[in-house]
Every structure is written in structure tokens, then in C-alpha cells.
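Archive transcription. Copying these from loose printouts into the bound notebook so they stop getting lost. Printout 1 of 2:
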Amino acid sequence: MDKKLIVLGIESSCDDTSAAILKGSNVLSNIISSQDIHKQYGGVVPELASRAHQQNIIPVVDTAIKSAKINRSDIDFIAYTKGPGLLGSLLVGSSFAKSFSYSLRRPLVSVNHMKAHILAHFIEDEKNSSPDFPFICLTVSGGHTQIVLVNSFTEMKIIGTTLDDAAGEAFDKSAKVLGLDYPGGPLIDKFSKSGNINAFTFGKPKIKELDFSFSGLKTSIMNKINSSLMTNSKFIDENLNDLCASIQHSIIRILLDKVEKAIIKTKVKSVAIAGGVSANSYLRSELVLLSKKLNLNVHIPKFEYCTDNAAMIAMAGAIKYKYGKINSDDYSEQASARLSF
């Protein structure tokens, strides 16, 4: 990657407004403004998210540029999230990116959010090496669960995906039933550390090949909790740690059982994780155990590159720019909530 290329990345696919400056593959700044307002609703409210992005986008970009100790004129091009995500949120980021690009007379690069999660592994990092091609990447978040065969920077193929709900949603909905705040995934991870993973068992989906399903598991969890509350009103309080540990174990086992099948099927010897759920400590530790079992090279992202962030958008944009897969003069390109992979 050309070390002289300086990229401004802009991410606004959901409820985090983020801007980053990348020089080559080195992050100079990565600023994220989160929206706490959604906690009181137990999930992201799209209209509120887009309004908050409008308030945050200018100060976040300004802070990213100042933190990187560069001038606007130093930016070589701008990368932004085209999709998938919440349309209103995407429109705020894409509109700003287009305007900023036009004012600076700099090229504009649109980025697929899910591919960017995978390409975050190529951000320069002294402690972690980038994966060699080909590799399997398990991409898990609140909206997506995918197993991707990554053959090169530009050749990626989804070989497994969820047929209904995403793993991150299963975490958050389970946490809501337990009375935990949003986002619930990190809280389940926290409480599970003192719990017994075998205390409770839940229904396990029987999905063929490499695809996932989490709707049945969610129903099984809710039925178990609700039926237990009918006989013991303090059931959750008395069993919170064990419930969190058992729920987390069930979700992670579903994910890693499919990853193991994908490794055996493709005979690929490197595996990576990406997306918000890749910050989960149990997923990380169990993936390391799987890598030892199958003699794999394992790649786990730094925590700051797990959740939505603009550094990964800038990295994906830099790679797309390098391989010439852009139309930098097309300002009519539209944000897409359901952008295909």
C-alpha cells in the first residue's frame, strides 16, 4: 500500500458516527461518537439515529483531521459507507462525503460495510499480522452473520449466512428478556464470566450446510425464562450469571461449529473473525481453541476495529482505490440499505 496516500474514511451505517484518517495502512486517527439515546428504547431508533448523525458528522470529521495533525488539503481521497445499514444514517454520511469530496476536488470511493469489517484485518498493527489468502472470515454483528471465503482483496464469496436473525440480535434480544440494557451483548459477556455454561440448555437449530438460524434459539431462550418466572419471580436474579453463560455458550457454539465445517470443507488453514460480536471474549477464546485443534492460523481484530468504525472504511477504500475499482466522478451513486455483498 502506498504510504503517501492519505484517506478520510466516513462511517454512518447505524448509530455510530465515525471518521478516520489513514496514511497507507496506518491509522492516524479514528474518532467515534456513539449515541446513548437508544438505550431507553432497547434498540436503535432509525429516525433518532439519522438526526444524531446530522449533529455529529461535522465535529467528528473535524476532530479526526485535527487529531491526525494534517490539513484538509493533505487528503488524497474520501471513502464512505454506501451500505448496508439504516438508510437515513447512510444518507447523512454519503451526502457529507460527496459534498466534502466536491469541495476539495478529491476522488470519492464508496465502500461495502461488511467487506470493510473483513478488510480491517489489513490495518497496520504491530502486535497482529494480516491474514494470508485464502482465509475464512466469520463476520458477526447485530444485523449480519456470514462465513466468507476470502481469496483476495477483491474476491470474496459468502459460503454461509443466517436464514433469519443475526447472532448479535440473538444476544441483544436475550439480554432484553433478562432485563439488561441495550446493547446487551457486552453485558451478557460480562455476567457470563461468573456463570456455568452447562446450567441451562436451549433448542439447537438443525440447519444444513454452512447457514445459520437463530430465531428458534431466541424462542427457546424466551420460553425457558418466561416459564421459569411463572413459578419463581426471582428466577432471573437468582440465575443471571448462569443464564448469561449458557446463552452465550449456545450462540458461540452454533457459530464455531459452522466455522469448523467451513474449514474442513474448504481446507483453508487460516481463520479470522470480524464485526461487533468479534469483541466477545468467549468467541475469541473458543476460536483460539478451535485453531489449535485444527492447526489453523487465527486472526482476531483489535477491539477498536470490531464495532463500526471509520478506520475500516478508510482501509477498504484504500484497497478499492489501489485496484482501480472506483468511479470517482459519479456523485449520483446512491446509499443502499440492502447493498449486496
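Printout 2 of 2:
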Amino acid sequence: MRLDASNPLLIDDELEVLADLVPLAGRHIVELGCGAALLSRALLARHADSRVTGLEVDERQHAKNLAAPQAGLTFIAAGAQAIPLPDASFDLALMLKSLHHVPVHLMVEALGEVARVVRTGGHLYVSEPVYGGTFNEVIRVFNDEGVVRAAAQAALNDALGAGAWTQVAERRFEMPVRFRDFADFEQRMMRPTFADHRIDEAKLATTRAAFGLHVGPDGAGFNRPMHVRLLRRMG
């Protein structure tokens, strides 16, 4: 983590942000839309007495997760809108760049499910990319997420208004993202296993041109603005 005069807080490891906001030792944690569960894996490496359950709807990613077991980490094929776990099971829920991937009409339902499985006094940590900045300008050429990212924030506001949660902290920072070349960017960002961005030759060429404006001798680097909201479960 570093701070300089010309940029907001620049953070390489989001686990630092999470650890600064909530206790992580000896916790029961659920991560919704866990992807490869990189942050949860790092968390368990530091806190072996904690337990994480990762939910993922992408069948290919879920299979990869099951093929890479780790002590304290359990994976379930499920979405946030229908969590197959008992009430009040967890001290902490994590949604890391995943709330905006929940279908818009199911976002409020998903946050209701999270409220159901988090214990009174527990927390929900939601980290969402900000719709802005140079990285977003490249991404939106083939995947404009303006509507779904706004819907995610609106769903959080609705959840707060319903009384199950209260917001106790908020953080804004930037995370560095690097790519070796356009082929690396195309594979990681344009052709994920969990979404079909309908990439045709025209869209590929336009994105390549937008990406090329940021390429240097060591590849392309961006600072991705992030917005974290920490909610506490009310009684």
C-alpha cells in the first residue's frame, strides 16, 4: 500500500483494507461469487483458525476451485440469491467485484439472503469497481457496466433502507492492474468463463486500439478505482 500526492490511496492487496475494517481471526466467512477465491485463500494463510465457504455459479471456475483444495476452504456451486446454508451461519460475508454480476432483478433478493445467513452484529463487505477511470474506458468498449454497477449501489441503499443493515465504514482506493500485452488482456478480461461478451472482429479491433494507447515497454498498467462499503447486520 502506498499514498502519493498525485493519486488516491494505491493498494496492491485488498486484504489490507479488509483487515483494517473487521477482525479476521477465528471467523466463519462466506464469499459470494468467489471466482478463484484468491483473497480468501490469502486470508486463510494468515488466519488458519478461520473458515471460508466460497459460492460460485460459474461451473468451470467451480471445478477449478474443487481441484485446488485448501484447509479451511469449502466450495459450493450456488448464487447469492439462493444461499443453501442455515440462518445466522457466518460472522462475515464478502462480495468482491461480484454484486454487479448478480442479475439486477435479483440483487435485493441476494442481499436479503446475505442478511439471513449473517449473524446479528456480523458484517457484509462489498467491494465494487467504480465506473470511471482509464481502465474502465477500455473495458466499456466491449462490456459497458454502467447500468449494473449503478444498480448494485442502489440495491445496497435499498438494503440499508429496509433496516437489516447499517453502514459502518466506506473506503475508496485504487488497485493496480497490469497486462503483459493485448493477448493477456483479451484472455483475462474479454473472454472470462463466467460471461460471453460477444466479441466479434470489429469489437476486438476497437478494443485493441483503445488498449494500445496505454502500452509501454513493460506492457500496460492501469489503476482501477474501487469503492468499499462495510455494513453491519442489525438485530
